[in-house]
Amino acid sequence: MNETEILEKLNDRQREAVLATDGPVLILAGAGSGKTRVLVHRIAYLIDVVGVYPSQILAITFTNKAADEMRGRVDTLIGEGAEHVWVSTFHSLCVRILRRHADRIGFTRSFSIYDSDDQLTLMKSVFREEHVDAKRLKEKAVLAAISSAKDELVSPEKYRAVNRDFFGSQVADLYERYQRRLKESNAMDFDDLIVKTVELFEQFPEVLESYRNRFRYLMVDEYQDTNTAQFRFVSLLAGGHGNLCVVGDDDQSIYKFRGANIRNILGFEKIYPDAAVIRLEQNYRSTKHILSAANEVIRHNLGRKEKRLWTDHPEGEKIAVRRFDSSFEEAEYVCGEIASYIRDGLYDYRDCAILYRTNAQSRLFEEKFLMANIPYQIVGGVSFYSRKEIKDLLAYLKTIDNAVDDLAVRRIINVPKRGIGATTVAKLDDYAVSGGMSLFEAVCACGNVPTISGAAAKKVAAFSDFIGVLRAKAEDASVPDVLKEVIEQTGYVRELEAEHTEEADARIDNINELVNKAAQYQEEAETPTLSGFLEEVALVADIDTVDEGDDRVLLMTLHSAKGLEFPVVFMTGMEEGLFPSSLAIHADRPEEEIEEERRLAYVGITRAKERLTLTCARERMVRGEMVTSPMSRFIREIPRDIVDMGPVGAPGRRVTLPARGADAAIRSAVLASPSFGRPFPGTGERHRDSSYSNPYAAYQKAVRSAGGPAAGSDGGAASGPAGGSAASGLNKSGSEAAVPAGDGPLGYQTGDTVRHVKFGEGVVREIADGKRDYLVTVDFPSWGVKKMYASFANLKKV
DNA sequence: TATATAGTGTTTTTT
DNA sequence: ACACTATATA
Questions:
Q1: Which among A192, A365, A685, A798 has the fewest CB atoms less than 10 Å away?
Q2: Coil, strand, or helix at residue A221?
């Protein structure tokens, strides 16, 4: 491409950003201002006009998803040679560097990467070793302190020097011990990946020099979220040539809890006085109303770089604000709205996203979506890789790959049960510690351990032989083959198959999925290795696995939503105490914390392209307790003239009707009904009903593993609210709700065979007349008995 | 050594 | 509400 072609599709500011190739550049990119576009065009310009080799360009992102997207767009725009541009996340880039030079800092190239579960396990072990009473000091609190220290590049020694109080010196001890254990296990935690790379660069200038020569042009995305360690890493790399282009938006800095240092972006010009500063303020994503809401909310923050996003898009719909009596009604409303969008052909499921502050909030929506048969995907929460069966199998791979990974060995030494109990393991452990060896070395030498009896020793020896066989196999087998061998030889799946429970079946599905991932890795990796696979597995975030092609509603936290956009966004749980979180409200320095929450609100609002709905509930269950909350201040910060308060009343009054999908007659009928304006009938009962929540858990597993509510499920949905006593309050269709029971409005009745879009044909068992909708029980031969609301199920008589 | 049970504490957000 | 831990028991 020539210069004109690259520049013609950009606005003035964007063009400026592309043309500022050399020296430090700060691009303040407001939400939706086309920053990825700028970065990709900048790369094209560097290669095609400036003549930089693709391999000399490095772009760093925070998530694999962002990296993949940029990779794809670079490939499309540039074509030939584009594959040599480095596009990577901080963490995977650091792993690549560390593997190459691991021996210099006392590790081998097959070092393990510990996730937060592993960290906790290790810290618990350190507590035991140090005889620390877990009642006095929490493992998680210590890990948090250590993590913050690492974010700030504070070593155990330095930590000790700075924190002289009791807690401080205790943590310093544990920090030191923890690091030693990691090193003995040839393992690093997430934070170490950055810290160790910085150490490598600082201790071995020639290594740093080689990377400085290699990467002549650096670009860092989401710069507002870099912590001190990442900042140092970037500064070191850019140190020679100074060609460092950072892109960020201080208003979207939402990772302070993870050590993100907003000063990195606010002070960029101080650190690099000759930096070119470019502001991208034209928004290409949202309507005028949505943008105004975002601008008005974020305006309440002090100490930000003044900017005001604008757009030439139409005004669009006003911001819908809906307040409900309970969180159940809130979920029902959102569900009903989405159903009506689909019914009216306005949007697809994939156009809609539900955002919330905490992962726990997803449950309510999930229940409603299951009932309504709406396809959905939850991002975050329990990760695929943190499931027991997956962690077990990965621990086998780690044991094969990195024999000194004590944590992995300990995890599988008696999985499946082979009669090596806690006592034997403790003896092996003692022997290992006294002999200064790893646990697995002790296992191999168990014949020499005097305290272990003959019978136990035999079992331990069998285990070490077993690993030996697997290791031999791993020498020349592919990753999926090694994994399959482990599954076969351990009988892991056979054992699960024998259980014949839904949970076991879900676990088997997960295992198959893991084999698929291994096979995919083997296909795609340049030089596939066990370490490489384990690393890829360790560094994926849940958001990375979201497939744009699937037609489903996405549910995720506001944090996960950063960088994404959707035509329709619901921001839910907009209540004081939840969002902003009560932890922020009652923090030592509340103003600061509230500002971070406000930035989170800003991120949420700016995800919406066309429609934005903010919902809140007067009452909701929080950890088993009913909590009453006022509406979030962030709603109040939006000017009233761009807010649509709903069909009846204003926020603060009872608003429980859908804005759409109900005509005037229906509306007045519902208004007149005795249930309107009173606590939702039966919600409390329903939630206490264990038949509702328990099967749901199993159902949920099946759903998650199969990627949608339609697959892999059976009886779960059958145990909905008993007898339809608490009918769906708000459904999409007024006409169905208003007509009395009978086969007239539904077009079928008990005994009829009906067709469902997902479950196929089934026989109607029961039609219960709920308050506002019918609850239909259908027996699907291949899926089991299901209860569903008539207006959502869209059943057709056959 | 493995399992059932009662009691305990916990959560904001995540690479 | 839920998961995890310590304890008792087979």
A1: A798
A2: coil
How many Cβ atoms are within 10 Å of A422's Cβ, its own excluded?
A: 8
Pairing of strands A625-628, A608-622: antiparallel
Mark the nucleotides of strand C covered by protein, meaning any atom under 7 Å from a CB.
Answer: 1-3, 5-6
- Between CA A403 and CA A397 the distance in angstroms is 10
Alpha-carbon separation of residue A521 from A49, A89, A532 (angstroms): 35, 18, 9
Q: Which of A129-138, A368-377, A529-538, A601-610 has the highest mean pLDDT?
A: A601-610
| CA/C1' separation A175–B8 (Å) | 27
In Å, how far are A157, A241, A275, A291, A394 from A23, measured between CA atoms?
36, 7, 7, 33, 44
Listed in sequence order, the DSSP H helices in A437-569 are 439-444, 454-476, 479-490, 492-499, 502-524, 530-538
Q: Return the closest nucleotide (C1') to the Cα of A623.
A: C1
Decide if A373 contacts A793 (C-beta within 8 A): yes
Contact, A578 vs A631, CB < 8 A?
no
How much of chain A is helix, strand and coil, in % rounded to 5?
50, 15, 30
Q: What DSSP assignment string belongs to A231-248?
A: HHHHHHHHTTT--EEEEE
d(CA A192, CA A181): 13
DSSP string, A140-184: HHHHHHHHHHHHTT--HHHHHHH--SHHHHHHHHHHHHHHHHHHH
Phi, psi torsion values for A553, nearest 5 degrees: -75, 140
CA separation, residue A748 to residues A92, A312, A624, A771 (Å): 57, 50, 40, 19
Q: Can you give the distance from the CA of residue A46 to the C1' of nucleotide B9 in angstroms?
A: 56
Tens of pLDDT, residues A665-714: 333 333 332 222 222 222 222 222 222 222 333 333 333 333 333 222 22
Residue A143, amino acid? L
Q: How many CA atoms lie within 13 A of A254 on its CB side?
A: 21
* Entry pTM: 0.79
- By C1' distance from the Cα of A693, the closest nucleotide is C1
DSSP string, A555-615: EEETTTTTT--EEEEEE---BTBBTTBHHHHTSSSHHHHHHHHHHHHHHHHTTEEEEEEEE
Residues with CB under 7 A from strand C: A 124, 134, 621, 623-624, 687-688, 693, 697
Q: Residue A61: which of A212, A191, A218 has the closest Cα?
A: A218
Q: How far is CA A405 from CA A184, A559, A676, in A?
A: 8, 32, 61
Which positions on chain B have an atom < 7 Å from some protein CB?
1-3, 9-15
Q: What is the dihedral of CA A336, A341, A343, A346, to 10 degrees?
A: 180
Return d(Cα A424, Cα A710) in angstroms, integer. Answer: 46
Closest residue (Cα, C1') to B8: A135
User: Which are the catalytic amino acids of A?
Assistant: 35-36, 221-222, 252, 607
pLDDT in tens, A593-615: 999 999 999 999 999 999 999 99
* Tokens standing for residue A220: 């860092």
- Going A470 to A474 to A476 to A482, the CA torsion angle's sign is positive
CA of A624, C1' of C2: distance in angstroms: 9
Nearest-angstrom CA–CA distance, A702 and A724: 25
Identify the H or E element spanning A279. Answer: strand A276-280
In order of A257, A350, A568, A577, the CA distances from A357 in angstroms are 14, 21, 18, 11
Structure tokens at A603: 């991120």
